[in-house]
Design goal:
The structure is a homodimer. By secondary structure, chain A is an alpha/beta fold. Chain A is built from 17 helices and eleven strands.
């Protein structure tokens, strides 16, 4: 492909994207294909000769779109928000065109320095403690691919600190104990498992009726483990759980972890971005007690996945856990301490120029636009909750301070579980909305996650009316 | 930003990229900024109002380009190839525009099925064993972000198999022993460390004068560890080391790991793609004995980072190590076994639609173009080696079967190390080329990695003439 052909095809593809996003509401929200359908529509063997780009673009329409579950659809209310924006897409385009590797400062200083600046901008925009800024004495932040990776990095830093670095040599993790509620994200158990903290060393701290951690229980479990000769080392407090958007009480948990010397990781992947709006800054209340904190612009800020923000109060522990320096990666800039090598802040070596999409979004999209979107989602969810509360067939099963509502049919146990399951399946089969299912203390619930780029009052109203119609049978 | 504004700005950005890549040779290869320069050129605080995209694009030119080390420059001969191509950039653009999350089949079936097909296409194009195909009884492949992550996944699968899954419960890794040479990539030690295999359980297997593993030494070390009551579990054989492109002898190593029941991981990150050219299929000789294999289209195939291919011969071990199934991620398609949920094949949960860039590259770029590029790089390296061999001031310090040449100044020890260091620094300071330094058994060497998208005979010639001029003092 020549540069001029790239210009022509690139323009066509940009237009294709604009048209796709403008018309995304015309599609069934979820793909309706069966396993194997997409592959069967494509050649089993690779082409022996180059094809025209027009043919490739045609296959995006003909084959790929049928297999897309449209995360940017206004009626996508499943899983979690993953809204994108036009400026963010352009940031991805620019990063792809530059084609640089940001593993070290020296391999493209702008990739590192724009990233560091973005973390400091976000610290300011979210009202996070200044002690997390890159310009602080001990703290700093990094863009990682996902909250899963941030959580794993947090565990590794805590593991390093709790063993005085010894784990890097002997790999002995058998005495370490971690704490989280049953509502914590699956990446907590997965990250611990990867780091050699098996399921029998993950304590499930009881939660209250709002699905939030009970600090007294945490305290009791830590004491019991210490009495048994084990080494409590890491607590995950979630600010906005995936299942129901529960908020573990940070100030109380933080006072325990400070006193006991445990690493406190705050997983605010789904809701931390709400703090862009000053009235929602409570989501990060108590974060000054955290040793690490993570949130995702790729969920609720119009920034394309992958763009996770991960801050640590003590970068030395993170570097102790993750630094390895072979000869072919040495550089004077980094060894002098003047530059950051972000490869030592993450699991993989390589890194894309992900800061561009955040930079483009903040500058060309504007923070005001993100705040307006967050406020719209929260208001729509509150309105939806009023409608649900007014319908005696339904019940709301968890607090709903932001943009997630968990509802279920009220009919008597045990049928309510089956009925709610049926309701979700029927709603999703309509193609008019996409919802996900969860189970909260044994109760099946329908999660309505209001977070689409263009989700408006009419979309939420339509989803609710669909549920009402289906409930009527 | 409205859709129409996106069209206008998107077209402008596509043109900017074409112009950048057409003119990339005009830049100094390495950025010449000092730590802090880029940040100092940008506002310390985020903007309170949205800015025009024209201003953002202007800052790409004014600020960012000065801080770019140009990996796509024809005289970039540092680190490893990371060449991109126009079709691949368009694949990234399409993925950004669709904005889907491919963590599970059901969250966008096309994201999973195009990916699976691409792995099978690549198995065929590289001549890898059919037992690695997704359609095989036990094997399969996945796109991961980097070889670091693939290696970590391999270690976790091996750890699971060696402990009969017990590690997921007790986290006890203290008896496990891993094996690699000193020439293995830093991600090996890092991955092992993360998985709880400390440095004292990583055996450094001696290498021969070609920097390749000595199988007899591996065999001896395994026996000694067994005699000491330890559990040998994982061997990394590198096919193309980062330092010098050494090739560990797979058939011999594989016969040992098969007999001993150890997991054999083959790290062909840098050179495995050479097998696209039939005459270079030897790079994967013996891979039928591997338990896992990884190579990077984002290095030598014109596909943008991140696009790592990772295959396992026994997917059950990988799934055993990495599967976790919370209620909110359940789906009928996956539980029936009809669909693949790639989140269980990797460390993080979330995933971009990375298969598009590989698909676009194979179709619109064409495999023939990638093969021609590989052949050109190999031929240029061979020619360069002849020039170096003819100059008595220089010596070649390692075999050079493909596209990396390690050279140094011949003057008597210990000055040759310092002189070679000076040579590399001066060459890089010129801005005309970028080379990296390594140390091979105590000898400082200059790595000349010939792998740029547009690197041609004149570029290699110019680099060599620069080195000759500098050596002349």
């Amino acid at each position: 492909m020549t540069p001029d052909e790239f210009r022509v095809h690139g323009h066509a593809l940009i237009d294709w994207i604009a048209e796709y996003l403008e018309g995304v509401a015309r599609h069934s929200v979820a793909s309706t294909v069966q396993p194997g359908d997409i592959r069967a529509a494509l050649p089993e063997h690779p082409p022996t000769q180059a094809e025209s780009f027009a043919d490739v673009l045609a296959d995006l329409d003909r084959v790929v779109l049928a297999g897309i579950t449209h995360w940017q659809h206004p009626s996508f209310m499943a899983y979690f928000p993953a809204n994108i924006s036009y400026p963010s897409i352009l940031g991805e385009v620019a990063a792809a065109g530059l084609g640089v590797q940001g593993m070290s400062w020296v391999t493209s200083p702008a990739c590192t320095e724009v990233e560091t600046l973005m973390l400091d901008w976000m610290q300011e925009l979210l009202g996070l403690p200044p002690s997390l800024r890159s310009t602080s004495t001990h703290g700093g932040g990094v863009i990682q691919g996902s909250a899963s990776e941030a959580t794993l990095s947090s565990i590794l830093a805590a593991r390093w600190r709790a063993t005085g670095g010894q784990v890097n040599t002997d790999g002995d993790t058998t005495h370490l104990v971690a704490y989280a509620t049953s509502q914590a994200h699956s990446s907590i158990e997965k990250g611990l498992r990867i780091a050699g903290i098996g399921a029998q060393r993950l304590r499930v701290v009881p939660h209250d009726e709002a699905f939030a951690m009970v600090p007294g229980e945490l305290e009791r479990m830590i004491a019991a483990d210490r009495a048994a000769g084990l080494v409590p080392f890491w607590v995950c407090a979630t600010r906005g759980t995936t299942s129901s958007l529960a908020f573990d009480p940070l100030p109380q948990i933080g006072s325990i972890t400070r006193r006991e010397g445990l690493w406190l990781h705050v997983d605010a992947a789904m809701s931390g971005i709400a703090a862009l709006a000053p009235e929602h800054r409570w989501v990060n209340e108590g974060v000054e007690l955290a040793d690490s904190y993570t949130t995702n612009p790729h969920k609720w800020m119009g920034v394309n996945f992958d763009c996770n923000l991960f801050w640590v109060a003590d970068r030395a522990a993170l570097l102790g856990a993750l630094s390895i320096l072979p000869e072919y990666l040495r550089s004077a800039a980094a060894e002098s301490g003047a530059a950051i090598d972000y490869r030592d802040w993450q699991v993989p070596l390589g890194r894309r120029f992900r800061a561009l999409k955040l930079w483009f979004t903040i500058r060309a999209g504007g923070v005001a636009e993100a705040v307006a979107m967050i406020r719209r989602h929260v208001a729509l969810t509150a309105e939806l909750a009023e409608w649900v509360a007014a319908d005696p067939r339904f019940e709301i099963v968890a607090p709903h301070p932001l943009n997630l509502l968990c509802v279920r049919l009220r009919e008597g146990e045990p049928d309510a579980n089956a009925a709610t399951d049926t309701l979700i399946s029927q709603a999703n089969a309509s193609g008019e909305v996409l919802l996900t299912r969860t189970v909260l203390d044994g109760k099946v619930a329908c999660r309505i996650s209001v977070g689409g780029r263009t989700t408006a009052a009419g979309d939420v109203r339509a989803a609710w009316e669909l549920l009402q119609r289906l409930a009527a049978g």
